[in-house]
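Researcher: Here's a chain I'd like modeled. Treat it as a single chain, no partners, no ligands.
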Amino acid sequence: MENEIDHGTEPPRFPCIETEKAISRAQGLMKALRKDLPEIWQRELGQDIIDNLDIAREAFREVLQNNREERMRLLEATRDPRVL
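Model: Modeled as a single isolated chain. Structure tokens:
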């Protein structure tokens, strides 16, 4: 029974995964667009946007990891017979 997780209570779609995918798509679209920007300042601005999306993506991953760890801790705590 150790390390068993009840996946039956999980939603069919995870908003956090959809958010991470959206950030990734925005980053990819910006990279593609940046190649066609005519002015140097526009390409630099495009790179700034890409860099900020990368920072947001990394921070979001950290939040997801922390939430996952907390969720696992709570699941383990509910399995402890002393909690009941």
